[in-house]
Write a structure and sequence with these properties.
Blueprint: H1 2-9, H2 18-39, H3 42-47, H4 49-72, H5 82-86, H6 89-103, H7 123-130, H8 132-143, H9 145-152
Length: 153
């Protein structure tokens, strides 16, 4: 079962659900970005507040399930440690995007923590994992960082 989950959450994995999950996450990220943008229009947001809430809940469910699947997919044979896995940039970005929703469920006044809502914009960075062109640029920059550094000076 864990092997299947690993293959499902792997970008471009061989499991039949993997491609569906990749596309679902990509579409969800785009919807989340549009949602976040439209939410800043106060009149529009007030007129459609319940719709915004439903969309936010659905997106959070999708991203939470994906996050949990990626936690389960940890492989101690290939990953360094579980701590390094959960502290990896992609896992931290995912967690930061989820925190604002779950903070609103706490029975305390969190108006002073509204800054955490900005973490939802971190979902944009998730796109890098699902976009081949962005990944190619990232890999080239990582492989050639010394050459790029020297060329700037």
């Amino acid at each position: 079962m864990i092997k299947q989950i690993r293959e499902i959450v792997k970008v471009d994995g061989n499991h039949k659900i993997s491609l569906f999950l990749d596309r679902l996450i990509t579409v969800s990220i785009v919807i989340a970005i549009v949602h976040l943008t439209l939410e800043t229009e106060k009149d529009f947001y007030k007129a459609h507040r319940s719709f915004f809430r439903v969309v936010e809940i659905l997106l959070t469910i999708i991203f939470t399930v994906e996050y949990i699947m990626r936690l389960i997919a940890y492989n101690r044979q290939t990953d360094r440690s579980f701590l390094s896995h959960i502290l990896s940039s992609s896992m931290l970005i995912d967690l930061m995007a989820l925190i604002p929703f779950y903070l609103t469920l706490l029975p305390v006044d969190l108006r002073y923590l509204r800054i955490f809502r900005l973490f939802r914009i971190a979902r944009i960075f998730k796109l890098a994992r699902y976009n081949r062109a962005i990944n190619i640029v990232r890999i080239v920059m990582k492989d050639r960082k010394e050459l790029l550094t020297v060329s700037f000076f």
